[in-house]
Q: What sequence folds into this?
């Protein structure tokens, strides 16, 4: 029984990988020609019939050739999960070099990474970064509210205000409060949020004393406020080869795909909802919440820059090379996080 299931799973893997490669429905004969072991065409046809009964593949035409269903792709990803876990992106050192050489200009870093991912995958790639992250702090004000609570109002260059409420467990005089606010304005006004995070992590956080506990508490709460932000802007990039896929031969499908790209709020919500604690995630079919987008798939991972989260990945037709793309997306996101957290950029540079 186990050997039957193994043959069945191997037939599904062969069919999907052949379909990804050739872009045309796959016949039992094509799978037989791929195998080095002697397996008859009749045996392969039998396995394909079982896979079709389980809903993993189907015949798009009256011919014997078949293509995967969404359920088939999901099962395939499970079957090759060990290979995905063991694979590594082979340009990690190059990516670290980009991060180290440009880490003071995070916008430029993310632009380079988006281009690198597009070149490496021939897919539509994206980077979703917090809209506020590249804002600059214009001014900081503080007000006493509700007795012992303090309300910090951070005015940003975009016109937005970010509020942080602090309830110190220690006494602070009006004079101490004025000195703290003056210090924060002198140190941080005109700095981008990314740079403030970097400054806090690498320079300021190790200098706190009992005399300036308020500043430490402010930065701690300000950091958590940034982590909880959910307004993102998605930047897309791709090579021309992406639109040459047979899935885009139909004008209607191109329009649907463009419509999907424009729904940035929905894409961000999907990514936030599904990622959990996983290193990476694949969203496809009905998981988009719209049956019109059921032919598409999204591979993405969560990254952090100086503690501020974002997302990156690829999006396109469900016929993707998951075994190749997932490790690239996963490892690029992981490298960004590990290289920029807790001063790792500075240590790597040395």
A:
């Amino acid at each position: 029984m186990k050997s039957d299931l193994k043959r069945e799973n191997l037939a599904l893997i062969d069919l999907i990988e052949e379909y990804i490669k050739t872009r045309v429905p796959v016949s039992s004969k094509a799978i037989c020609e791929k195998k080095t072991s002697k397996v008859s065409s009749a045996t392969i046809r039998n396995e394909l019939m079982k896979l079709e009964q389980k809903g993993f593949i189907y015949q798009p035409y009256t011919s014997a050739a078949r293509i995967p269903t969404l359920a088939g792709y999901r099962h395939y990803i499970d079957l090759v999960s060990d290979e995905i876990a063991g694979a590594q992106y082979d340009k990690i050192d190059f990516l670290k070099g980009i991060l180290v050489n440009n880490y003071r200009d995070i916008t430029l870093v993310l632009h380079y990474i988006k281009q690198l991912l597009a070149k490496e995958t021939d897919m539509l790639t994206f980077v979703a970064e917090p809209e506020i992250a590249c804002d600059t702090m214009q001014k900081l004000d503080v007000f006493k509210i509700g007795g012992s609570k303090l309300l910090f109002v951070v005015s940003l260059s975009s016109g937005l205000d970010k509020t942080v409420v602090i309830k110190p467990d220690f006494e602070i005089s009006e004079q101490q409060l004025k000195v703290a606010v003056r210090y924060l304005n002198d140190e941080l006004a005109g700095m981008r949020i990314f740079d403030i995070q970097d400054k806090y992590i690498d320079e300021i956080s190790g200098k706190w004393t009992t005399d300036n506990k308020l500043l430490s508490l402010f930065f701690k709460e300000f950091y958590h406020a940034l982590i909880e932000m959910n307004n993102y802007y998605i930047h897309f990039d791709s090579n021309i080869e992406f639109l040459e896929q047979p899935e885009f031969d139909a004008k209607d499908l191109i329009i649907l795909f463009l419509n999907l790209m424009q729904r940035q709020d929905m894409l961000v919500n999907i990514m936030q909802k599904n990622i959990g604690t996983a290193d990476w995630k694949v969203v496809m079919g009905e998981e988009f919440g719209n049956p019109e987008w059921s032919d598409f798939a999204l591979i993405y991972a969560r990254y952090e820059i100086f503690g501020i989260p974002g997302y990156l990945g690829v999006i396109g037709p469900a016929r993707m090379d998951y075994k190749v793309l997932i490790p690239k997306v996963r490892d690029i996101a992981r490298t960004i996080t590990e290289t920029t957290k807790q001063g790792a950029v500075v240590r790597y540079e040395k």
